[in-house]
Every structure is written in structure tokens, then in C-alpha cells.
Write a structure and sequence with these properties.
- By secondary structure, the protein is mainly α.
- The chain contains four helices and no strands.
- It has one domain.
- α3 crosses α4.
- The longest helix has 20 residues.
Length: 87
């Protein structure tokens, strides 16, 4: 891939990430579980938006795979831990 093709691809992906998460709240975008010392007033960074999309994609995959089955609180807790690891 040539340099300008890679730059174009990066710009498109950056824009798609920003547009996809545009109307999301700050609380949705920022997972502060792993960053306890983080400034509460900080605006979401692009990486926060990327991580949100990653978590949402993994969660959708898990819940689609388990559709139609009884999901207990224990399973939900385990899935949330896996999603944090994946993102």
C-alpha cells in the first residue's frame, strides 16, 4: 500500500469512528474502570471512541451468540470482564 493510500484509509477510519460515536454521551464513551486517577472533567479522546466501538462490537457478538438462552447475572459479569479484556 502506498503512503497516500494508507493516509487516506487512516483519515476515512478516523472520520467513521468520530461520526459513529458523535451522539454518544461522555459516560458511554469513557470506561474509567481501569483509569481511576483520570480527570473526571476530561472530554472523550479519539481512543475512548475507538474503545467504545470495540466494546460494543464484542458485546454484540457475545449477546448474538447467546440469543435465546437464559443469561444469568454470573454470566453477564463474566462477559463484561471479557469485554474489558478484549477492548
Amino acid at each position: 500500500m502506498e503512503s497516500n493510500e494508507a493516509t487516506t484509509m487512516n483519515m476515512v477510519l478516523f472520520g467513521m469512528t468520530e461520526l459513529t460515536t458523535w451522539n454518544r454521551s461522555q459516560a458511554e464513551l469513557m470506561d474509567r474502570v481501569e483509569s481511576l486517577g483520570d480527570d473526571e472533567e476530561r472530554r472523550p479522546l479519539h481512543v475512548d471512541r475507538q474503545n467504545f466501538l470495540r466494546r460494543a462490537t464484542v458485546a454484540k457478538g457475545f449477546y448474538n451468540a447467546l440469543r435465546g438462552t437464559k443469561i444469568t447475572k454470573k454470566i453477564i459479569f463474566a462477559l463484561e470482564k471479557l469485554m474489558r479484556l478484549a477492548a
